[in-house]
Amino acid sequence: MKNYHKVLSNNNQVTCRFSSINESTAKVNNNFSLKFVLAGCKVYQIKKRKLSIYPDYFLPIKKGTLYSNITSLGTHAQELSIGFDNLFIKDFEKSCLQSDKQLLDNNINKSIKADEFTENIYPFKGNLKYNIGNLKAQIDLNIQDELLLNEYLYHCLTNYYTLYKQEVFAKVEKLHFLHLSTRNEIYRRLSLAKEFIYTNYDQNIVLEQIASYSCLSVNHLLRTFKQAFNQTPHQFLTQIRLQRSLFLLKNSKYPINEIVMMMGFDSSSSFIRLFKQKYYTTPLAYRSRFKSKNQFYI
To answer: What range(s) does the HTH araC/xylS-type domain occupy (predicted)?
Structure first.
């Protein structure tokens, strides 16, 4: 398993690292960075928050943030980290978030800065996933063309900003409150609710725990969660459990009954029913697609 740490001439950095189970690190983030887990699971701790990151989500971390992480769920994890130099970030803010005339006049436009990029969990999908895959393939081949690599980094940052707008701005606008400051604060608390569900999906969690963690009343949580995310907390919990079960069916030899218990489902029958409703196949049929490939990580 190959580890690498590549620093470009403009101080953008790409790091790919394999780590063993329970292996932990602690550090201060030197630059705004995006953390991806390509295999396994990494649990990041930022102050009192614990964020479990799997291959279908990623985590942005601000410059100066003290964090630690530990490998969980299996024998190893593969983490890909992209660190963006401050000047690269500033140029991105100017070029992407200002008009052409402002760029030519070198005017300063009020825009979202890198330190405003909230440290929440975001879905790893679409163009971002495509560009990250291409970037990793180029580095795996030891490509030295920095122009090409920086173009990939630029596109990754653009893809992240697009996701950020989709996940934050659009959902903030859905909240039925008059003042923008109130909508922003409610969204921040709802993000904590999603974070709690995402990290504790395998536990027998109840609404009161989610509401307490997000500093909302139960009724307020139920009403605003549905407004912002078009699903209830229970529906989101089921979605995460099904996504995690896909990973285990593909990458582990755990029996289905054991996966049911690990994911927190009530019974095998309810798991199979929900799985078929979501993916139009049975867990056993899904697993059989990958059985011959021996891609078992855990």
So the answer is: 191-289
In whole angstroms, give the CA distance from residue 56 to residue 17.
18
Tokens of 135: 């970037």
CA neighbor of 191 nearest in space, from 173, 215, 161: 215
Rounded to the nearest 10 degrees, what angle do helices 268-279 and 233-251 cross at? 90
pLDDT bin (cut points 50, 70, 90) of residue 40 is confident
Tens-digit pLDDT profile for residues 195-215? 999 989 999 999 999 999 999
Residue 82 near residue 138 (C-beta atoms within 8 A): no
- How many C-alpha atoms does 191 have within 13 Å on its Cβ side? 21
Burial of 209-230, coded b for 16+ CB within 10 Å and e otherwise, reads ebbebbebeeeebbebbebbbe
In the structure encoding, which two tokens stand for residue 209, read together? 């725990």
- Model confidence at 116, in pLDDT bands (50, 70, 90)? low
Tens of pLDDT along 159-207?
998 888 888 888 888 888 888 888 889 998 999 999 999 989 999 999 9
Pairing between β-strand 76-84 and β-strand 13-20 as defined by DSSP bridges: antiparallel
DSSP β-bridge partners for residue 294? none
Tokens representing 260 are: 């049911």
Sign of the Cα pseudo-torsion (118, 122, 126, 128, in order) = positive
Are the C-beta atoms of residues 81 and 14 closer than 8 Å to each other?
Answer: yes
Question: Do 54 and 247 form a contact (C-beta atoms < 8 A)?
Answer: yes
How many CA atoms, within 13 angstroms, populate the side-chain half-sphere of residue 268?
8
DSSP letter for 23, please: -
